[in-house]
Design goal:
Layout lengths: L6 H8 L3 H15 L4 E3 L4 E3 L1 H21 L13 E6 L1 H6 L1 H11 L4 E6 L4 H6 L5 E5 L7 E9 L1 E6 L11 H6 L1 E5 L6 H10 L5 E6 L5 H7 L4 E4 H7 L5 E4 L8 E8 H4 L2 H12 L4
Parallel strand pairs: 3-4, 3-5, 8-9
Antiparallel strand pairs: 1-2, 5-12, 6-12, 7-10, 7-11
Helix pairs in contact: 1-2
């Protein structure tokens, strides 16, 4: 009204009805105990009180408009942000090296704090303690998001020096050989084991490990067999004399996802990191 001097023009500029603007103006008049505007032949003229009040009102309105249009920008080459990322051991084996290599190039001051995924990861995401989690797929809940990074079929992995098992393994050999496994909450062990038991296959376990740290060395120096995603096998074969073995049955593919909470969904930095991870070629 102060800028237009006209009720109709003010209503149009605000996107409100004239009665609505009139009612709001009346409330202001009552609050300040001043008419604020008086009708003249040309327009609605502000009172002296309205003239004095206008600068602070305009400042508040401009501040509100700025707040409503505010959006955090993320400039990777300038940012020194710390991202807290929870990863399964598989994620750390396959995804962490190329991620750090890329960050060193495109965002050299950004730091990543990596932790292991735990059973409490959903709470950690919702509370903002973890920005992003990388691990196997699981049922999604309200306010959580997940994105498929890749899926991988399973193979057997065994020492290249094993003479009795070649490029394929029979069902009987699979039952008789001793198995090495990764048994933790994020390895997919329980899903694989459940499927094998539904096929009437019960493995003989030689050792159940908590992570992949010593897997390549153990497999290379024993005759143990490991049932693992192809993507894991390809990485481990780079570090020891191992070979892939075709399994005598089909297993559901392992789906590897990135997970985040709704509170991080529109965050510019989190979106940038998620897109960066999707763009990585791990092989």
């Amino acid at each position: 009204m102060y800028e237009t001097g006209n009720l109709s023009k003010s209503s149009s500029a605000l996107g409100l009805s004239q009665p609505g603007v009139s009612l709001a103006l009346k409330r202001l008049k009552d609050h300040f105990d001043d008419p604020l505007f008086v009708r003249t032949p040309k327009c609605m003229e502000p009172t002296l009180f309205a003239h004095a009040l206008f600068p602070s009102i305009k400042k508040s309105a401009d501040s509100l408009q700025e707040s409503l249009s505010f959006q955090l920008n993320f400039v990777p080459e300038e940012s020194d942000r710390v991202f807290n990322v929870a990863m399964s051991d598989f994620g750390q084996l396959l995804w962490l090296p190329p991620l750090l290599e890329r960050l060193n190039t495109v965002a050299p001051r950004v730091r990543v704090e990596v932790s292991n995924i735990t059973a409490n990861v959903e709470n950690e995401l919702s509370e903002g303690l973890v920005d992003l989690a990388l691990g196997i797929a699981h049922p999604i809940k309200a306010h959580y998001f997940q994105q498929l990074l890749f899926d991988s079929s399973y193979v057997g992995l065994i020492s290249r020096n094993h003479l009795e098992i070649g490029d394929e393994i029979t069902r009987e050999q699979y039952k008789e050989v001793r198995h090495l496994t990764i048994r933790n909450q994020t390895s997919g062990f329980y899903l694989v084991n459940k499927h094998l038991e539904s096929l009437g296959i019960y493995r003989k376990f030689a050792a159940n490990l908590s992570n992949y740290t010593s897997v390549a060395t153990i497999l290379a120096s024993t005759h143990y067999l490991m049932t693992t995603p192809v993507r894991v096998a390809d990485v481990l074969m780079q570090h020891a004399q191992l070979k892939k073995v075709k399994l005598p049955f089909e297993l559901p593919p392992m789906k590897f996802m990135q997970h985040w909470h709704g509170r991080q969904d529109m965050d510019a930095g989190n979106r940038w990191l998620r897109n960066l991870i999707v763009s990585l070629k791990t092989f």
